[in-house]
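residues and backbone:
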Amino acid sequence: MNAPDSIDMQPAAGRGTQYTVHTPERGHHLMDDAEQAARRQRSRRANFIKWLRKVHGWVGLWGAVLGLLFGATGFLLNHRGGPLKVSSGEPQVEEMQIPVPQKPLRSPTDMAKWLKTELKIDGKPGRMKREPAHPVAWGDRSTMQPEFWQVGIMGPSQSVQAEYWVGNGFVAVKRTQNSFLSTMNNLHKGVGLSVGWVLLIDTIAGSMILLSLTGVLLWTELNKRRVVGVVLVGGSVIAAVVCGLM
């Protein structure tokens, strides 16, 4: 057999394996593990700041209107006395005597319920006083003073105080109508209001706390001058302590 002088080995068409070598372009390089970790860290920080902004914004929107109310009334309550007193207006006082009902009143609580229905008073019964009958001296004589009842019904816009001597045919009632600013102050203090209002104000107080915390976190994340922030917070605390002890 005659063998050929040379054998030309060529891959069959379509069956060869081709390798492509990627050469990094000038100015580009593959990221190492440290750079990838840094990018992930920056991404998490950006997501955290975005979440903080959303929480801060929605919580602030929830307490915006009542926050204005509490800010204004807090200013008035802070200046209700002392050298920097700010007047909230003079109340209007009315007095009257109302006949007792035909059904006997058995206690100050019964009298408060009857007055609320009879005079259509908005508010809650407050402090009640029941002084039993006892002898009193009148010169050289001694007499028996009848039992004495006193009740108060408090509301945001008015307060009612009633007095009754057991055995009398009437109840003395004194009503104090508050001014607009005094009514706002009573809303701040929750005078004569329902449990629903108290719980609503609790949510506003919680939102103020959350606003403070998220505000501090946002400042620390967005501002690199953290020493200035520490100085401001520390200065406010020191000023509060010093002014409180003066």
Q: What stands out?
A: The radius of gyration is 39 Å.
